[in-house]
Amino acid sequence: NRTVVIVGRPNVGKSRLFNRLARKRISIVHDQPGVTRDVISADIEDGGYTLLDTGGLGFKGDDGNLSLAALTRASETQVDFAIETAQLILFVIDGLEGLTALDMTIARMLRKSKKDVLLVVNKADFDDDKVDLAEAYRLGLGEPLRVSAEHGRSESYLREEILKRIGTVPEVEEATGPKTSADPLCVCFIGRPNVGKSSLSNRLLRSDRLIVSDVPGTTRDAISLPFEFKGRNGKMYPFRLIDTAGIKTQTKLASPVEYFSRLRSLDAIKETDVVFLVLDAIDGVTQQDKAIAGEAVKERKPIVIVVNKWDVVRDAFKKGEDPNCAPEAAIHGFDSERDYRKKYERSIFDSLFFTPGAPVIFASAMSGYEVDRMLNAAVQLNRILDTKMPTAKLNKTINYLTERTPPPAIGGKRFRAYYALQTGNRPFRIKIFCNREEKLTEQYRRYLEAGLVDAFELNGCPIYFELVGKE
Ligand code: GDP
């Protein structure tokens, strides 16, 4: 995973070493208890790895004079964290002071973990050997490497050794999903009965698009129909339409047949890359629409919102008539097609708030209006799904978000994110090491998700957070 984590008891010079490797001049020296920044990360570009300093982790922030017990607890938290995240651990000890009981405790934990550990003896500023290497050897963590973070002694040697351990050439980007861009893009329509799913399907599968030679295969009950689409750039994109029998919400299930057809639709969602959620231009966003959108969100699928039957709205305004929108649709006081569209969009943002940034397309199965745009949006979302979020930027963004709007205190304690990294793409998965999982409220989770979607331009793609509590 190309993550290198620095551990060691306070004052051995971890953050100096971090700054040197990260080629930063000086930042906060948080190696003193009390100054906390939890975990600090930097992307080391020439080495292709992420470097973490855990020096602030486990300290409460207000304890000036720490007892040995408190120091030990904090160090254990840091080492735990390192063992869980690191490919390689840099264990720093103080060459001038020699080994302490806490060093021994840390060494014991590291030996037990079977992780790759590089023992770094810091503050070996000069050749005079105040540094007792024999002692360091006794830690049972292999050959110690003498460095001086302060003066840069053995810096290049340390860099080389790190690369030797984690491998110089970054591994071939591990495929995080089953897809490559040459695979057909699977889409499906979900929505209430009569919003126009079948009509939109027929529209997509018309004439030039449908690949007739290919016999529709079946995937777990859902039918999959291949077709091709010429994108905006003139490129042909292979697609598959996964056909569903239409989702019914739980409460409306009348018969076993309906029950099974619902299951089928859920399967369809699972196999889909991008979901088209179809709404009716006249009905507005209904309760049932929300429930159906929820199914897609539960699977963390990217969503394109299609407002179908736009031809009706357009014709009405052309004729100077009222489009007769449903009274329960939260769309009022419109005076033009443009205005109606704006108000419809607003009602989507208000009631489908759990799909951050999903594109909204006003279309018509009947006239074919904007149907290409729907497919272009799907292509775009599919491309977004390949986004890699660099660890340092990810953490900076989360820091920024939590500083801008701090998490609410739950039972006197706030959610606190120590460190995050992306672990997957389809769907986006972000692992967050935090104080306690249960301190993240659903509302705050959504706030973080929306903030990240915004920062990394992941519009329409939900993010799954995997929380690992460390307290
Ligand atoms: P499904 O149940 O979601 O598959 O909906 P259908 O595709 O069967 O469509 C339901 C009704 O809406 C049919 O009478 C269609 O002709 C009509 N319909 C579907 N799309 C449009 C559209 O874009 N414009 C208009 N005016 N009618 C549509």
Automatic annotation (TrEMBL):
A Pfam family recorded for this sequence: MMR_HSR1
GO biological process: one example: ribosome biogenesis
Domain (EngA-type G) ranges: 185-386
MF terms in GO: GTP binding; ribosome binding
InterPro entries named among the record's database cross-references: G_ENGA (IPR031166), GTP-bd (IPR006073), GTPase_Der (IPR016484), KH_dom-like (IPR032859), KH_dom-like_a/b (IPR015946), P-loop_NTPase (IPR027417), Small_GTP-bd (IPR005225)
Subunit structure: Associates with the 50S ribosomal subunit.
Family: Belongs to the TRAFAC class TrmE-Era-EngA-EngB-Septin-like GTPase superfamily. EngA (Der) GTPase family.
HAMAP family: GTPase_Der
Name under which the protein is recorded: GTPase Der
Lineage, opening ranks: Bacteria, Pseudomonadati, Verrucomicrobiota, Opitutia, Opitutales
